Amino acid sequence: MSDPKLPSETEADILRLLIGRGESYGLELVKASDGTLKRGTIYVTLARMTDKGFVESREETTPPDEYIGIKRRLYKATGLGERALRAVDHAQAMMLGKQVLA
Amino acid sequence: MPPDKAPTLHWMVVLVLGLCVNTLPFLCFAAYALDLRDLTAAAVTFFVAPIMLAIGATVGARIANARVLSAPGGLLEATVRWLPFSKRGKAEVFGQLIADMRQDYIEAIAARRQWRARAVVVHGYATFGVTLIVYIGSAGLKRVIEIWKLV
Question: How far are the Cα atoms of A2, A19, B85, B90, B123 from residue B82, in angstroms, in the given order?
Fold first, then answer.
């Protein structure tokens, strides 16, 4: 079984986007991912990442749009998330390096 | 026109045109009833006037090409309230999904893309279904792993 403290591929994609863009809505992440992230799974994944401590979220401070009626949440990567992403990227680079040498 | 102002403006157009269209028939009915001092005619007046008002409002809205907007996803919100999920799951997963759908819907309406707006709603409902399956599957798998670890 993989180490639960390491992000999956989708989680790593989300972390990259969050680190690159800063605090973002889930919908913004889906649009910025060019089809990598799906609307049907993004919030389940974000909830799981929050449980793991990779991201943190907060409700927007401005009152919700009268028409939308629901307060939207902003997500950002935590320090742990950034370190986990660096570890994954480093591991991938190492693997690629080994393949090239072989 | 900002999308959040649209419903208020549409209501005002509907109200003004509806009143204009109905003023004349209402006055006619009232005069007819008072003149004859007939209770039946008066009763008819009070029953007919609201119907005429409703028809007038609809006609007025058609003339003004106005439509009162209601937020899509009301049924989904009701469904989420009924589902036996945690408060956090409801707010952070399903609530956000509905908010996203409404955001896209507003953008499509503001751009006067009616078909795009309809597609957003259909897509929103489909996404909701997928999320429901993923959420239940994910929660179930988590529980199985917990039990597995205990055993």
Answer: 36, 36, 9, 10, 22
Q: Using a CB–CB cutoff of 8 Å, tell me whether B146 touches chain A.
A: no
- Pick from B127, B38, B141: which is nearest to A39 by CA? B127
pTM for this model (two decimals)? 0.67
Assembly ipTM? 0.81
Kindly report, residue by residue over A17-29, the tens digit of the pLDDT: 999 999 999 999 9
Decide if B130 contacts A40 (C-beta within 8 A): yes
Separation CA B105–CA B71 (nearest Å): 9
B55, amino acid identity: I
Whether residues B134 and A41 touch (CB distance < 8 A) is answered with: yes
Instruction: Judge contact between A51 and B138, C-beta under 8 A.
Output: no
**In angstroms, rounded to a whole number, what is the distance separating the alpha carbons of residues A78 and A84?**
10
Choose the mutation target among B90, B94, B96 for the interface with A, i.e. most A CBs under 10 Å: B96
Q: For residue A68, give the nearest of B93, B103, B127 by CB distance.
A: B103
